[in-house]
């Protein structure tokens, strides 16, 4: 078959898959349901808090629920950056139905792929994606340290305190890299940049874009003044470099405000909830205590909005780092923020609450294409596309227990693919359409070719074609490996007809074409 024939087959298959996806004979909700907690999370930290949450979100149980495999795909994609393997699907379906989500989360939380993936996602908000000043900054060290803390389920407020108050050498104290990332080697100023740090803290940890008043007072009637930003920056004035690494000095912070003749001394002060700022401690210790204070609600809202965005590929409040201090707030945001505070900022508990909600488990299908899908359909992120292509080529899960060769190949192939496909950067939740070069990178790129070509050792397409007991099983395995679902009756019939009578080389070619078509389908490239 020629490549033109392959493309024609791909187009026909894609249309068939999308039509099936959109128009299955199932009831559909007239609008997206509100947030609800539908199963017991297993947390006992505050029974009254959980009970209050359930009461405040009084709803019916889920109707129009997504299939179990759709939910598994969402969980795996959100928390590991890739689709589940056929091996994992088999285990998942063997578990009791009422325990599948809790057992899946237990497996994910114990998987280092998850902590590594979540650490990278958080790092984009904390320090961006640039490599920075190499002599005093090691981004990889910081991401690895974040991964260790997430894997150990260290409370989120403790993670943030550790970053803000960091001291020492950036190689032996990875948290110091949060501060040294702002050093500009081309600037005469020594030490971290107070202005950049104030902007990072306000956006990443509080979900507030107070840096918009860095140069002048707000002109659109908002509450922020130029002094609000620089008084917050003043908390970082004592962060200086020395022979022993980053230290805390008593250096004052000065800034020349707009229309002022000379720089003036700027006292450290927080822009709201001043009563929560401790009177004792170093400047950064006081700021860290204020930022993470349980009564400083913007901290909890910012955490919830970002974790929600990671789970859905779309935040509750958009942009993800611009949540109004006074509201109004989505009901789910406020309820989960209260739950995050009650749990002691337990990341696993927050993720479990979201995963067990009707909003996460609802179908993405709509009967009327003018309706907003109950579960928001979004394009996969670049690393999710790459990770899913690589995982689809292996029937077993490619994780920390895999052979070292498999892990090295995955890292190299994923890195090369993202370089060609394009990285979303730190503004990762800005909705953008896919591009033609991105589509061509998947259709004609090296990664898809290498992961679908004939290779009995490395590629699932060849293994399935050679080892499946019959054509129907071969087609089913291909769909599970790529789309995390079983084929419809018409899809099975169409592809088994293509396999009929084919032996050895021709059969292997047909299986490669099937994998190529499914990986290039619209269904594969979207979170749904």
Structure description:
By secondary structure, this protein is mainly alpha-helical. The chain has helices at 3-23, 47-56, 68-80, 86-94, 100-109, 112-127, 139-151, 156-164, 177-180, 194-206, 226-233, 283-291, 297-312, 331-342, 347-355, 358-361, 382-392, 404-421, 436-444, 446-452, 460-467, 471-483, 489-499, 504-519, and strands at 239-242, 245-248, 254-255, 264-265, 378-379, 526-527. The strands form three sheets. A two-stranded antiparallel sheet has the order 1-2. It has a two-stranded antiparallel ribbon with strand order 3-4. Strands 5-6 form a two-stranded antiparallel sheet. Helix 2 runs antiparallel to helix 14 and helix 21 (460-467) packs across helix 24. The longest helix has 21 residues, at 3-23. Residues 1-61 have low confidence and may be disordered.
Structural class: mainly alpha
Largest sheet: 2 strands, antiparallel
Shape: elongated
Order of helices and strands: HHHHHHHHHHHEEEEHHHHHEHHHHHHHHE
Number of strands: 6
Task: Work out the strand percent.
Answer: under 5%
Radius of gyration: 25 Å
How many helices? 24
Determine the N-to-C terminus distance: 32 Å
Question: What is the spatial order of strands in the main beta sheet?
Answer: 1-2
Q: What would the average pLDDT be, to the nearest integer? A: 84
In helices, the fraction of residues equals: 40-55%
List low-confidence stretches.
1-61
